[in-house]
Amino acid sequence: MAMKIRLARGGSKKRPFYRVVAADTRMPRDGRFIEKLGTYNPLLPKDSEERIKLDMERVQYWLDQGAQPSDRVSRFLEAAGVIAKKERSNPKKAEPGKKAQERAEEKAAKAAEAAEAAAEE
User: Fold this and answer.
1) Burial, 93: exposed, middle or buried (Cβ in 10 Å; 0-12, 13-18, 19+)?
2) What region does 96 belong to: left with phi over 0, alpha with psi -120 to 50, or beta?
């Protein structure tokens, strides 16, 4: 049985609240889970103690059993020092999208035309 340590969403509309759970990968996101390992409240300030609460002993147990943390949970565990920090590299993240690049090219072309017109006068 493939296990994941992941977030299960709770809370009402526009007021997210997450439980950190150990669940079978075949179960739905908010569906059946095996054990609740902690909570995450993204509405609280980043320096708040209540923002992320984890039962580290149980998290370590599930990691030893072969459970894989989701990306967000792995970031929580890296911050807590439980797992080694992974190198993440997404160089395309900072690049603008296709439409924004097209707009920039059009703007550059108009600026070049205006510069030529000013030079001729």
Assistant:
1) exposed
2) beta
Give the predicted TM-score (pTM) of the model. Answer: 0.69
- Count of alpha carbons within 13 angstroms of residue 18, beta-carbon side: 20
Domain count of the chain?
2
> CA–CA separation, 95 vs 101, rounded Å?
9
Q: Does residue 19 form part of some domain?
A: yes
User: In residues, how long is the chain?
Assistant: 121
What are 39-71's pLDDT values in tens digits? 999 999 989 889 999 999 999 999 999 999 998
Contact yes or no for 21/33 (Cβ under 8 A): yes
Q: Are residues 13 and 64 in the same domain?
A: yes
